[in-house]
């Protein structure tokens, strides 16, 4: 059995929406598309290494539409483009009937991800906050890799909102801090929430 790894660029207030560009995802009249760019430092090589480590790409419907509209049109000389375009891709959607991005398989239910995890060593989910939460609830996430950036937006799609099954996490890798203040944090699910008394 392999690992399902959630990868998110995220703000201090938990927003993951549209880090890459102004028109990436304007849903809800989101005004801060491209918020990651001014905060990017020397983490590029680390991000590329994570992308290179994946054996399959997993996406929710909204992120799939964004990626499928962008990455097939990028140069194959770009290592990120080359990896994303060549990797086996899986999109979880109950409404998508066909997928034009080469190498894409449509999964109709979150439970179908278990079979994908059985086939590949490293299945990486990028963005796709709603799918990430559903996979966490289903026990199908092995690691969460957050790229935390020093900005708070006050609006936008947020990760790990109300309604999730409560759980704790353990640090799976040592945190890494980058030149503009971004921090790489990797956690693994570690069981039920325990409570105690600090007095």
Give the topology, please.
Blueprint: E1 3-11, H1 44-52, E2 56-60, H2 61-70, H3 79-86, E3 89-92, E4 104-107, H4 113-119, E5 122-126, H5 129-137, E6 143-149, E7 169-171, E8 176-177, E9 183-189
Parallel strand pairs: 1-5, 1-6, 2-3, 2-5, 3-4
Antiparallel strand pairs: 6-9, 7-9, 8-9
Task: Please provide a written account of the structure.
The protein has 199 residues and is of the alpha/beta class. It contains five helices and nine strands; from the N terminus they run E-H-E-H-H-E-E-H-E-H-E-E-E-E. The chain has helices at residues 44-52, 61-70, 79-86, 113-119, 129-137; strands at 3-11, 56-60, 89-92, 104-107, 122-126, 143-149, 169-171, 176-177, 183-189. Strand 8 (176-177) and strand 9 form a beta hairpin. It starts with a strand and ends in a 10-residue tail after the last strand. 27% of the residues are buried. The model has no long low-confidence stretch (mean pLDDT 95).
Radius of gyration computed on alpha carbons: 17 Å
Oligomer: single chain
Helix/strand order, N-terminal first: EHEHHEEHEHEEEE
Shape label: globular
* Beta-strand proportion: 15-25%
Mean pLDDT: 95
Number of helices: 5
Q: Give the helix proportion (percent range).
A: 10-25%
Please give the largest β-sheet: 9 strands, mixed
Number of strands: 9
Quickly give the structural class.
Answer: alpha/beta
Unreliable stretches: none
Question: Alpha-carbon distance between the termini?
Answer: 43 Å
């Amino acid at each position: 059995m392999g690992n399902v790894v959630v990868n998110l660029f995220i703000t201090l207030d938990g927003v993951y929406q549209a880090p890459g560009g102004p028109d990436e995802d304007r849903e809800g009249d989101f005004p801060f598309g491209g918020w990651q760019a001014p905060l990017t430092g020397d983490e590029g090589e680390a991000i590329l290494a994570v992308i290179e480590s994946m054996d399959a790409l997993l996406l929710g419907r909204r992120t799939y539409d964004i990626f499928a509209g962008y990455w097939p049109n990028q140069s194959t000389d770009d290592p990120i483009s080359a990896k994303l375009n060549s990797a086996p891709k899986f999109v979880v959607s109950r409404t998508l009937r066909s997928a034009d991005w080469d190498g894409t398989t449509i999964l109709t239910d979150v439970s179908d991800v278990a079979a994908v995890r059985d086939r590949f060593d490293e299945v990486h989910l990028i963005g796709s906050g709603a799918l990430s939460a559903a996979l966490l609830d289903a026990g199908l996430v092995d690691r969460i890799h957050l790229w935390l950036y020093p900005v708070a937006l006050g609006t936008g799609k947020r990760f790990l909102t109300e309604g999730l099954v409560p759980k704790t996490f353990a640090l799976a890798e040592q945190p890494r801090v980058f030149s503009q203040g971004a921090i790489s944090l990797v956690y693994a699910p570690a069981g039920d929430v325990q409570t105690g008394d600090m007095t």
